[in-house]
């Protein structure tokens, strides 16, 4: 159990005093007259919002020990509060248990072990006040600050009645949960886009779901956290399953071409203006409310803190017009349209028939986009539009280039966990207009024709980067971005692979944007409910700054690059860059089964055959988890269909950073072929679990009696012998580029460069770095169990990567 | 996907008319003038609570298809509503999807497949009205009735404003969700018991948490659903782990005794009166509120429907007085004290110091107890007190005799999943007074002394039934029960084993109580969030009858014995009894490796040795799941430490019901020994998963914008070769009784009767019934890997069980 706080601001005594007054922690106190003990007892009584009488508050004080032998009340009759007694009580307030979590006789050891900040000496009222201020901002056992936990117990309910003009309130640079979540207003409006993606001659209307504090009805203008989620109106899971492509097919031999990028570059076609609806009237309030939006719990957390939550699923989803697409410019425009409405530059209507306009009059015009995966992807897409209302995006596990999601190296490479999925499958899954029978009846034919075209255009046969994918590459438009970006990605995310965030991070380096990068040890998950990181608090600081314009130094306070340690529980490190100046280049050469420091011109060839006995092939193609585990563990028969090269055990721990690069000389026995690579950490060690452990079911409340979240954390599991670091794939016919098909003569050696997926990995001393070279990837590539032999000319092979030494 | 409704009442036309008026579905309708189509459209518009304008309601109607080609609005211009169009639309309202779930051209086939009730002909307004009434009570895709789903969308929010005197309202015999859950009142009071379990000279005060509708402040009196949960104030998990007993110990040889039951019978000691607190004043409202009670989601569901929820953890838990115990009469008295306060015959105070009395003036005096496991156990315990305020219990996965939880057949037999746990461990885990440092400081010494005594009294050495266990046997007091009982238990629950509910069921047979039994296919779980069963609706019917006194025929309507099918998804059958008159006795004899119809006097002996190679023993004792799987699959080396006897394949399917009984003649090679048994279904078949699948995360709302639950269901998994049916254990020294130690001479044959755990299992035709005889049970018994040989004289062995034939 270890805590890491990055969203906490250090303030001066006058500032602390003022803020404590704001949140009514000094109400009734005459600071110049009160004794330190009395002030302490006053704070503690205030921090008991569930106790409504003096007797009940006294009972609470009687339940807290100030040292091994005395309750707070006993202690204060004979002693004066000092740092030891203050933190003995503080740890109890924070939810830590005597004996189980800390020893009353030595609270400072516990504070250090838990990595909680504290004041080593408390000798005066001023010290006490500052220590109390900081304590309110210190996280407890559930990873939330004491102030957040007091809020969950009802501390701020009396603030609900403040006039709208007095809201929001900030404490320590962050907006406070003073908004009554039992009185949230939910509304549906229909934003009119500039698109006519279903070609019905009318501009597509987009359903938008809004949840906003009641205070907005009384004059408060709030920012909007907007989450664009094509999944939000439901998904067609059976249809998606039906359309999923077969992956036990042969890799195609591609005709040699000399294609240049210009030939496949996407240029937006000129489209005439779409006729807009005439405005027949205006409305202040919507005509539809929501039952339950599919919310992101971080948005719920911010809803209690004075930020509206806005959800839209986009063209082709239930109750919206248009045809579904996947990553196209139309989808970006559909996403941006909602921001434009929120910022006042686009129309919305109360329904699809009456042409009654409704404005986002309750919005202060500042929008942030949030969400993970496809949701974060659309945040990234919207940012590349440069639309002025968008002040920042928190882009989690986001795609930056759809080619890097469904393809790699001239190959069809599935997102991990979803073999056979492709753009057309995702379109069909998200086409939730299908869920409304009457609507589907009239759009069905267009949908099917359009889907057929996508299936053709995505081109699963060649796997090349083409015009379809160029239209879906947000990296081309990064120069348009004007807003700050928080990038969050799991270092074990094989669904949206790391290249997506790496490219977004690297290619915005020189754009003078405020950028923050958080790399965690998860797979494809959210991290706002982790015990070890104050993610919600960090983002509150960021959004209070970006959307409410609060001068809280958020860009300076939040770390630029924050990486979760892969060898320790609950440990996060700050870095200057992903693969920056602190690293040095390492080159390893191939010599038989080894990765060695110097090239061996006599190393000779090594080969393997991408073919398995029929039974093993069937079994592995039905269970790719087992296949990967057995491949990493070097189990037969996978030892004959792959090669492993291992380094010597490391003498010191290093961080592997950025992208590993392979230079290879390779020959295949046929006129087509693909190579796959895994970089592996070999060494017996306890490693973090694949998924976080559940610590506390429903243990986090977004506000007071509002929506609940589970508290989770990655925990070390029993020792295991290896861990996948990263992967890579290439079609041997794409040695020149992703769009040109190179000649591949059987049994002829060719030189090849491969860039693997990026990494940020602590490789401990004593462990070996392993490289597995193989072909068919049961989880990601096509595989037909062909008898296909691959040979490597080891003397001409090399692995380059960047790493920094770790001083332990 | 298959639905089963048992909580639905058939009503007359006048009754339906009246009730539809009550819930405002006929407001503004002149029934004698309106056309059937207009009435239908009116109903549909009313069933769109999220649409607040005529245009929005019209849009909703336009989204529903009445047949393959026409929306409702189009259809009604040319046709008149009939059963086909009514149910085409109905299925959409219920959340089923066209194509994915049903075919618009043939709705009746879908209704039959889904097992949903319907009206085959709708020819008149009366037909339509009755069909609509029934549709409101028909469950949708999420297993909740349409009316419940309308409630979640806000249909009943306008009913919040009804005067308290007009509440509750009932529809179809069940209380309606017309209570504003955003305005629930939460309170803490301290009930004064007649106990002084911590021997401090003062009657133990018990903390009680109350959540009640705001209407109670305005004169409404509501019943209470009371859940007694020793876990509710937190658990000492680290301490519990530390105290868990070692199970890799030798089975003790017991000295021969001639003990009679009278010698070990528990008789309550006479205790002098405990001095009570003087009343210093009275209060109407409590001084403390709650942050978040650890609620049972079924209680949440009923909270929205006008039933208060009451939680108490009992003596020895945080904020209560007393020492923790486990199943003792003191715990029962502590549990009952809360009911007595709710019913008006006991005092409670607002805090522990001021002696200010507070009454449960908001309660109508009718109490039901709810909850699973320890919670259901305390409900059963309270029922045996006969306390008049307790009108019914819904006792789920409950213990009826603590000997049957921690012991069996003269052996320590752990609850499945918790080897080494015992009464003392559970006491320590639930002693949440430890969580409040100051309180713990002063009670610690008494707690530790008391715990030490329990460790002695529970007697892990002999495993016998003794005075300690006799004090914890609720079956002795069943004759005191006055209230109705709903028993719910999982047929795969190896934590609280089936004997507990079987004995409760069988031994209350002649008590003239209203009894209902529900046996599901789960392990140790709740079933109020299943798709296939309307459990919440059934219980609403039951509780509206029992606690509000509504004459709704609940006892007659609800099935007496309801059993979930173990071979089909979502299928529930009604029976007259668990092992009643429909069954016939089957006797199978042992012949080498077979179970045969007739005894073979020449069958000869069979033997096995309870000893494994050291490596296998270590591996299996650390992973009892693998051990059980390998034992059932007959993997070496477990084949030498057990015997399997198999029947011939069954020619017809049968239900195995009640308790299997074994008559054995057995010899052991030492002076101590234990035998274990597994009855097994051998046959390749798809079987239900061990745990239910998640269908819809947060898909169920307890009311409107209130607490959320996941929707789940057991699904058939890929075919497997076997399934455990039931188990049993016996100490060879307990052939006479659970309290007498019999002589056991090595290598001497003794006759032995063993009753295995009860079952209700459909054994399909073609499958074989298997009996595995073994000794050490890695999950449940002690095991020290002794070299201990067991021999069975097969000619004198027999398996008896009761079964009924299934006409497929």
Distance between the first and last residues' Cα of chain A: 21 Å
> Tell me, what is the CATH class of the largest domain in chain A?
Alpha Beta
The CATH topology name of the largest domain in chain A reads Rossmann fold
Please state the CA-atom Rg of chain A, rounded to the nearest Å: 29 Å
The CATH superfamily of the largest domain in chain A is identified as: Alpha/Beta hydrolase fold, catalytic domain
Report the major sheet of chain A.
Answer: 11 strands, mixed
What's the multimeric state?
Answer: homodimer
CATH architecture of the largest domain in chain A: 3-Layer(aba) Sandwich
Number of domains of chain A: 3
Could you tell me which chain pair has the largest interface and how many residues each side has?
Answer: A-B, 54 and 53 residues
Strand tally of chain A: 31
Please tally the helical runs of chain A, counting DSSP H or I stretches of 4 or more residues.
Answer: 22
Overall, the morphology of chain A is globular
Counting helices, strands and paired strands, the structural category of chain A is alpha+beta
Q: How would you state the average pLDDT of chain A, rounded?
A: 97
Q: Give helix % range of chain A.
A: 10-25%
Strand coverage percent of chain A: 15-25%
For the biggest β-sheet of chain A, the strand order reads 8-3-4-7-5-10-11-14-15-16-17
As residue ranges, the low-confidence spans of chain A are none
Enzyme class (chains A, B): hydrolase
GO molecular function (chains A, B): aminopeptidase activity; dipeptidyl-peptidase activity; serine-type peptidase activity
GO cellular component, one term (chains A, B): cytoplasm
EC number (chains A, B): 3.4.14.11
């Amino acid at each position: 159990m270890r805590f890491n706080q990055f969203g906490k601001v250090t303030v001066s005594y006058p500032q602390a005093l003022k803020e404590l007054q704001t949140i009514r922690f000094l109400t009734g106190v005459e600071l110049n007259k009160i004794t330190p003990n009395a002030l302490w007892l006053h704070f503690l009584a205030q921090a008991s919002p569930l106790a409504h009488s003096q007797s009940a508050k006294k009972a609470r004080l009687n339940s807290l020990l100030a040292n091994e032998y005395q309750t707070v009340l006993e202690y204060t009759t004979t002693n004066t509060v000092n740092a030891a007694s203050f933190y003995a009580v503080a740890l109890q307030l924070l939810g830590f248990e005597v004996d189980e979590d800390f020893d009353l006789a030595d609270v400072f050891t516990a504070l250090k072990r838990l990595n909680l900040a504290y004041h080593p000496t408390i000798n005066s009222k001023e010290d006490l006040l500052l220590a109390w201020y900081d304590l309110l901002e210190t996280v407890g056992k559930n990873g939330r600050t004491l102030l957040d936990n007091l809020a969950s117990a009802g501390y701020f309910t009396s603030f609900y009645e403040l006039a709208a003009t007095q809201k929001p309130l900030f404490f320590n640079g962050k907006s406070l949960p003073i908004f009554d979540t039992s009185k949230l207003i939910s509304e549906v409006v229909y934003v009119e886009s500039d698109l006519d993606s279903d070609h019905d001659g009318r501009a597509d209307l987009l359903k938008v779901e809004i949840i906003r504090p009641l205070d907005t009805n009384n004059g408060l203008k709030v920012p909007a956290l907007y989450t664009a989620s094509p999944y939000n109106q439901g998904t067609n899971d059976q249809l998606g399953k039906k359309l999923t492509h077969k992956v036990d097919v042969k890799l195609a031999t591609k005709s040699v071409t000399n294609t240049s990028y210009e030939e496949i570059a996407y240029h937006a076609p000129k489209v005439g203006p779409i006729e807009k609806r005439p405005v027949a009237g205006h409305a202040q309030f919507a005509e539809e409310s929501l039952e339950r939006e599919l919310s992101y719990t971080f948005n719920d957390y911010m809803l209690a803190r004075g930020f509206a939550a806005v959800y839209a699923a986009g063209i082709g989803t239930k109750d919206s017009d248009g045809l579904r697409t996947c990553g196209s410019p139309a989808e970006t425009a559909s996403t941006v349209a909602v921001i434009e409405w929120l910022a006042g530059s686009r129309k919305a209507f109360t329904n699809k028939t009456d042409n009654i306009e409704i404005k986002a009059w309750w919005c202060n015009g500042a929008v942030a986009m949030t969400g993970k995966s496809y949701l974060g992807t659309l945040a990234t897409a919207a940012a590349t539009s440069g639309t002025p209302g968008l002040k920042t995006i928190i882009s989690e596990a986001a795609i930056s280039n759809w080619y890097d999601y469904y393809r790699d190296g001239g190959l069809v490479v599935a997102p991990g966990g979803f073999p056979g999925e492709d753009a057309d499958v995702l379109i069909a899954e998200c086409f939730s207009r299908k869920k409304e029978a009457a609507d589907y009846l009239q759009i069905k034919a267009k949908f099917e024709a359009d889907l057929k075209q996508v299936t053709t255009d995505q081109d699963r046969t060649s796997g090349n980067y083409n015009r379809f994918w160029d239209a879906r590459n947000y990296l081309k438009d990064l120069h348009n971005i004007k807003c700050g970006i928080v990038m969050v990605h799991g270092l074990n995310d094989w669904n949206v692979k790391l290249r997506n965030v790496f490219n977004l991070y690297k290619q915005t380096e020189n754009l003078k944007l405020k950028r923050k990068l958080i790399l965690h040890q998860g797979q494809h998950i959210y991290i706002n409910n982790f015990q070890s990181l104050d993610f919600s608090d960090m983002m509150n600081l960021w959004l209070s700054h970006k959307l409410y314009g609060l001068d809280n130094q958020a860009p300076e306070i939040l770390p630029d690059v924050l990486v979760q340690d892969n060898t320790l529980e609950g440990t996060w490190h700050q870095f200057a860059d992903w693969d920056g100046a602190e690293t040095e280049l390492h080159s390893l050469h191939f010599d038989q089964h080894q990765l060695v420091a110097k090239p061996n011109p006599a190393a000779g060839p090594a080969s393997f055959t991408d073919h398995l006995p029929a039974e093993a092939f069937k079994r592995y193609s039905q269970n790719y988890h087992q296949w990967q585990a057995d491949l990493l563990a070097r189990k037969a028969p996978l030892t004959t269909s792959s090669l492993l090269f291992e380094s010597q055990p490391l003498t010191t721990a290093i961080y592997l950073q950025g992208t590993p690069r392979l230079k290879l000389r390779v020959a295949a026995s046929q006129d087509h072929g693909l190579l796959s690579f895994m970089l592996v950490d070999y060494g017996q060690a306890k490693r973090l679990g694949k998924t976080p452990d559940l610590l506390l079911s429903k243990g986090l409340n977004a506000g007071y009696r509002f929506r609940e979240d589970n508290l989770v954390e990655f925990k070390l599991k029993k020792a295991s012998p290896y861990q996948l670091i990263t992967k890579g794939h290439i079609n041997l016919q794409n040695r020149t580029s992703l769009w040109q098909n190179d000649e591949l003569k059987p049994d002829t050696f060719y030189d090849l460069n491969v860039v693997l997926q990026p990494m940020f990995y602590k490789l401990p001393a004593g462990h070996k770095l392993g490289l597995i070279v193989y072909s068919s990837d049961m989880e990601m590539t096509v595989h037909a169990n062909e008898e296909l032999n691959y040979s490597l000319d080891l003397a001409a092979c090399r692995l380059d990567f960047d790493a920094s030494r770790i001083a332990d």
